[in-house]
Amino acid sequence: MREAQRALEGPMFARLGGDIEVSFEFFPPKNDRMAETLWDSVQTLAPLAPRFVSVTYGAGGSTRERTHAAVRRIVGETAMPVAAHLTCVDATREEVDQVAREYWAEGVRHIVALRGDSPDAAQGYAPHPGGYANAAELIAGLKKVADFEISVAAYPEKHPDSRDHQADLDNLKRKFDAGATRAITQFFFEPECFFEFRDRAAAAGIAGEIVPGIMPVRSFASVRKMSGLCGTAIPHWMEGLFEGLDERPEARQLVSATIAAELCRRLYAGGVRQFHFYTLNRAELSYAICHMLGLRPKVAA
């Protein structure tokens, strides 16, 4: 591919001028120690002046209060724009709308609107009888509550529940038509996966911004499990790179940063200038990759 060829022709990261925009995703902490780790990560990444940071929402709204608390603290104690995740699962429309109103009152102007997954994976997703049936309905409802900026999910390798790639693209287009601002992709490991998806989306009439979601691998076993749940293909070469590193976390982190940074370099060569990092509440990997892409601190932590 032309994009890959340009990446291969350039010296390692030498032509990257830091002209990228980034965003970071965190999850709400379960205890005080994890809350400390999250806050350390927020403060580490804040100097990179992200476009926004987002805080996830557990299956079935299981982390609703912890998500709200994390969002409230970031809004109150940093200058970073915050996006709160919101799903359709196990809530009526009125309950979801009330959460959205509370966020707006607290200064949150950005929602990551998701259908969400069932708390019981074996049962699969089923809409709440009085709730929003899907993300497109949720977006339309949020737009009636307030003029939120709205990010949504996209799946380069298609959502596991989708019949085929075309049905998945049709669903993404419905989300944009309902008022979505941008789509953030599920993580992937090959640049061609994103470029081909971007081309298919454009051919389907989707003109909105599509941002690649980047997840540095902290544990290969965990990534294999997550990939199985969301339908992400793991390249045949990746397992060998992590082999023998289970008891060497520092070496594993170096390998992870190298893989993710090279993926980003090739995406950059293909014209990508926005990146969304799934941090798993650990900042150093994402910070290192941003540094290799030429991004430098812009504001005080």
The proportion of residues in beta strands is: 5-15%
Number of helices: 11
Poorly predicted parts: none
Class based on secondary structure composition and strand pairing: alpha/beta
Helix content: 40-55%
Coarse shape: globular
The total strand number stands at: 9
CATH topology: TIM Barrel
- Separation, N- and C-terminal Cα atoms: 40 Å
Main sheet characteristics:
9 strands, parallel
Using the coordinates above, name the CATH class.
Alpha Beta
Strand order of the largest sheet: 7-6-5-4-3-2-1-9-8
Number of domains: 1
The second-level CATH architecture is Alpha-Beta Barrel
Can you offer a commentary on this structure?
The chain has 301 residues and is an alpha/beta fold. The chain has one domain: TIM Barrel, CATH 3.20.20. 45% of the residues lie in helices and 14% in strands. The chain is globular.
Please outline what is shown here.
This protein has 301 residues and is of the alpha/beta class.
Describe this protein with a few key phrases.
11 helices, single chain, TIM Barrel, alpha/beta, 9-stranded parallel sheet, 301 residues
What is the secondary structure topology, with strand pairs?
Layout: H1 2-9, E1 21-26, H2 32-45, E2 52-55, H3 64-77, E3 82-87, H4 93-105, E4 110-114, H5 135-145, E5 149-154, H6 165-178, E6 182-185, H7 191-203, E7 209-211, E8 213-214, H8 220-230, H9 238-242, H10 249-269, E9 274-278, H11 283-292
Parallel strand pairs: 1-2, 1-9, 2-3, 3-4, 4-5, 5-6, 6-7, 8-9
